[in-house]
Amino acid sequence: MKTYLSVFGLLLISNFCFSQTIPSKEVQIKTALMAAPDEKKEGAMVYGYDSNGDFIVLRNGSNEMICITDDPNSPGFSVSSYQKGLEPFMERGRVLKKEGKTFQEIFDMREAEAKSGKLKMPEEGATLFVLTADAENYDSSTGDVSDTYLRYVVYLPWATSESTGLPLKPSAPGMPWIMDPGTHRAHIMITPPRN
């Protein structure tokens, strides 16, 4: 009985502590939208977390953009926004990660599913924006973030260096290059120099 109460008590404490670290819905929406282009913010859909830490839709959208707020369980600050054509790819990744799959297992499973047609990938390309900051520059009570860094990814499934003319690594700061060429996850990386 004592062991049961101790375990139950720890669960209550851990749930209480976790729920205390989740920002308000308003803050989550505010920060998630920071990753979206200005003209896309108003109609973007937003994913975030409820008070139990479950991943949910915080706001429905009316355009093609989907935003994801910062994960309270991950270090630092990171929010993202992507074109809805990437949603099947992103959702499949979230499901497999929740199942405990490794990065390579997730890559291999999505590769096989994309090749078979089971996983639908955007045919004409789709963009992902990722905005990051150090933890000390993020106030989760107000949603204020400073010294942010924005990078861009354009997914072009099955594209190669030859089909795009892009190098396999940047030879100058901020130069676009192609990563994972020839795979379902082929994408153009654009990482502007930090100020």
Q: Enumerate the spans where pLDDT stays under 50 for 5 or more consecutive residues.
A: 1-20
Q: What is the molecular shape? A: globular
| Helix residue percentage | 25-40%
* Arrangement of strands in the largest sheet: 2-1-3-4-5-8-10-9
For the report, how would you describe the main beta sheet? 8 strands, mixed
The radius of gyration computed from the alpha-carbon positions, rounded to a whole number of angstroms, is: 19 Å
* Order of helical and strand elements: HHEEEEHHEEEEHEE
Structural class: alpha+beta
The number of E-state strands comes to 10
Q: How many angstroms does the end-to-end distance come to? A: 59 Å
Keywords:
195 residues; alpha+beta; 8-stranded mixed beta sheet; 5 helices; disordered N terminus
Question: Could you please describe the fold and organization of this structure?
Answer:
- The chain has 195 residues and is α+β, with helices and mostly antiparallel strands.
- The protein has a domain at 23-86 and 121-190.
- Helix content is 30%, strand content 24%.
- The strands form two sheets. The protein has an eight-stranded mixed beta sheet, covered by helices on one side.
- Helix 3 packs across helix 4 (103-116).
- The radius of gyration is 19 Å and the shape is globular.
- The N and C termini lie far apart (59 Å).
- Mean pLDDT is 90; it is low at 1-20.
